[in-house]
């Protein structure tokens, strides 16, 4: 557990022991504070930094309509470290006429200002884009005195109406002209990321001149900006050459209040990717995740330090925290949030800071202590989540030993009165909850007070972590396969930034059950249907760096890696999305352009990270394949040259990735009508979710026989004709009736197995871990008798925490034990 990234790397056992003694002495009659408020230790104060030169910038904005009587217009400079809506600085703007306003403000040179516009009357009204989606922020790079021309498309209380255009271009490195992926490009309050070829599209801009900014999430390239004139129904070209920034060593040394327990993690929260910023909209309006932030190390004299390689010239906004950017972060004595700015210098540098206080306002700290059940897995941690106005991101608690966990909340109690809290495992609140506050139910109440509070809770159990009793594994003689057999686990096709710190432990579990492969499922999102926008959405999809890091961790464990990219659809309804799409000639042109970018993006990622296989296809693609049909059976109105488009697309993918390419085909499905181009690929990845019995409690032998019949009658002829390896990728929920492969929706239809994937908001199905275990035993027994099957994959694995829920994930379930028995034997590792 001590090596988990959620923990401080230098936890002091002596300090924890002292903390435990203090807690043991506490009584409910005399609520304690384990950290008595005292002054900052008497170190020599570090010299102040030389002020950065400033420049004045004039922001001019055009409105879609005049303000209402009594309203005023403000420019809101947002704080991405604390939370976009939580520490805003509003600057009133002056009207030039009814539709045009301006304000001139000073900023430090090389600042990247993140801002948006708002109307203030009785309530604030924020600006929207042309898709009526809230503007996260605009950006302006301060390189000297200047001015920017903006226009508000619409407001959150008014729908957009009017013509639109787009900006399209490519971002490359100025040093060698190579494409740069994962660059954040903004214009008109709309944000997008470049793909692996450096290409980007910003769709939905009102006609006029817009400031386009290209910005690296980690600061490794200098920010680029330029105006672009947009015309209605036209594409404005925009290419950018970004200069790479040299890395310099920056050492942070910080003096902290002496009520800071040296055993708990002190982190750096910041606006750059390595400092925990996900660039997404997370719970409670936050953007940072505590477990993704770098932790400082304590020095012998009580100070803390960390040395980091940072890109010279980057605009780093940061703060010190015992939680995240909002909870338990540093404050001024006056109660304000602290957000520091460092324009990273051109040479190595030492920053010396002082944290004034962790506390905000007169309310005293609240100490939470929880006793967890003894059945937690090794490496799991307990997290605490707060609900001041809506649930925010969970914070890892501090381990005391003997299943006891603590967390002391200092701030921002000045913003709170009554609020709620709850406990969960591994930051997965809403999924792996304390049974007393499971799901979306209300949490435990707490109210701030002028006297210290000590709240002790006993966690009776965890949601989806019940005791289990299952049958034994069938002792079948396993026939070892030749080299090349794939024994794998496929991760759930979803993502949350809180998963990333848990990927290593998930991969270790995958390796521990004997897998030699892992199938990762990075996603893009369909953000807009018409005009089409299909790209990675931060906070919803893994960023390029996220997936690259996961592939690297898997390869370090000697796991082979396949990438199986899949899309996120609005409301998780691909059938409905296809039905609602225009599907005319122009729309199909856009769709094939975006799917090409999607496929090549992941081909390039596979090539650059060392993944061995790329899997394309999937059951969602039927409307776009030759002979395409919609969910109701109607034609999808494909262009006449669809087969040529697919052939050319796959040829281009081959040019980007030299490894093996498989095509994913759904089964049940008409394999005889599989696209002809599948024969030109390296194998078939069969998405198996076939009925094995009509019984609610079928025997292993019954399902074994039915699986064998289906494999012989339908799959083997297809594989023989294909002449390529075939991998069986299976998914069955662990609920009663799963062997029927039809989860009734109450209206006479079948739900997809993924409808039980986490997070599950509620289900009427009965969890049955034994039936999932039996299905796996039956399928593997059938595979054992057929040496023409080239691999077996368990789909739907939920990485961040083990659960005994009704999903198809085997993480923490008896079905994983079945794989632990079979995989090493199939691979010839165990006899």
Q: Which architecture name of the domain at 486-826 does CATH use?
A: Alpha-Beta Barrel
Radius of gyration: 28 Å
Distance between the termini: 32 Å
Structural class: alpha/beta
Looking at the structure, the CATH topology of the domain at 486-826 is: TIM Barrel
Number of helices: 9
Mean pLDDT: 92
Low-pLDDT stretches are 1-38
Biggest sheet layout: 8 strands, parallel, barrel
What do you see in this structure?
Helix 7 (700-722) links the parallel strand 41 and strand 42 (726-730). Helix 5 runs parallel beside helix 6, helix 7 (700-722) crosses helix 8 and helix 8 (769-784) runs parallel beside helix 9. With 831 residues, this protein is of the alpha/beta class. Among the domains are: 54-172 and 181-230, Immunoglobulins (Immunoglobulin-like); 486-826, TIM Barrel, CATH 3.20.20.80. It has an eight-stranded parallel barrel. Strands 2, 3, 6, 7, 8 and 10 form a six-stranded antiparallel β-sheet that branches. The protein has a four-stranded mixed β-sheet with strand order 4-5-1-9, with no helix packed on it. It starts with 12 loop residues before the first helix and ends in a 5-residue tail after the last helix. Helix content is 16%, strand content 30%. It has nine helices and 45 strands. The model is unreliable at 1-38 (pLDDT under 50).
